[in-house]
Amino acid sequence: MRLKVIRNTVLFFFVIGIGSVFNEYYKIAVDSKRSVYSLFAVIAEENSDSNVVEMVVGDMEAPISLVEYASYTCIHCADFHKNIYPLLKENYIDKGKVRFTYREVYFHRYGLWASVVARCGNDDQKLFFGLTDLIYEKRDDWVNSDNDDLLVLDELKKIGKIVGLSEDKLKSCIDDTAKIKNLVEWYRGNIKRDEISATPTLLVNGEKFKVNSYEQLASFLDEILSQ
């Protein structure tokens, strides 16, 4: 098979987070044996309308609203979802005590791509949270891919395929520049409004809470519930 070099794929990632501006051009040359990703352009604009779906699990009438701001590339977020979130879900979310909302933070293009894959099941809430668990579980497989953009995307696609997403479906999500633009605008608006500067950050009934352990979080939630 004749090899072709593709030089017109440009990844333009523009994200503002923790006082830093990521404004980089990424040019990838690949042959025809590899998947070719079309223009992956994200141009964030302030004060833009957003139709991004909020990812929520739990009783909508729960007495406690807990919002987690997290980045898929964040090791502390991975620890939270491995060691704290399962107990939080079992003891508070599933029992109707907490309504949990997950909001993505993009400190790196890889975290943005992970978000795109997690939302690739037509923004299905159950599928999103299942994929989120897998993305964190397999974090080392895709984050540590030798800083090779295609390897990162390939590893993330493998995770999507575990839950039944097809190659065509995943590629269509990765190529959906309009949705990607909305995600970045939504992210920027969220962190500006809620003054988010680190991940994971929890908002418990609107108040920031720095979580160190499940026991600490549970004690805080129980105090609220007892009032």
Structure keywords:
227 residues; alpha/beta; five-stranded mixed sheet; three-stranded mixed sheet
Head-to-tail CA distance between termini: 70 Å
- Would you tell me the overall average pLDDT? 81
H/E element string? EEEEEHEHHHHHHEEH
Bin the helical content: 40-55%
Number of strands: 8
**Which strand order does the major sheet show?**
4-6-5-7-8
Write structural notes for this entry.
This protein has 227 residues and is of the alpha/beta class. Helix content is 44%, strand content 19%. It is built from 8 helices and 8 strands; from the N terminus they run βββββαβααααααββα. It has helices at 75-93, 109-118, 125-137, 139-143, 149-162, 167-174, 177-194, 214-225, and strands at 10-17, 20-27, 40-41, 55-57, 64-70, 98-104, 201-204, 207-209. The strands form 2 sheets. It has a 5-stranded mixed beta sheet with strand order 4-6-5-7-8. It has a 3-stranded mixed beta sheet with strand order 2-1-3. Helix 1 links the parallel strand 5 and strand 6 (98-104). The protein is globular and about 50 Å long. It starts with 9 loop residues before the first strand and ends with a helix. The model is unreliable at 1-49 (pLDDT under 50).
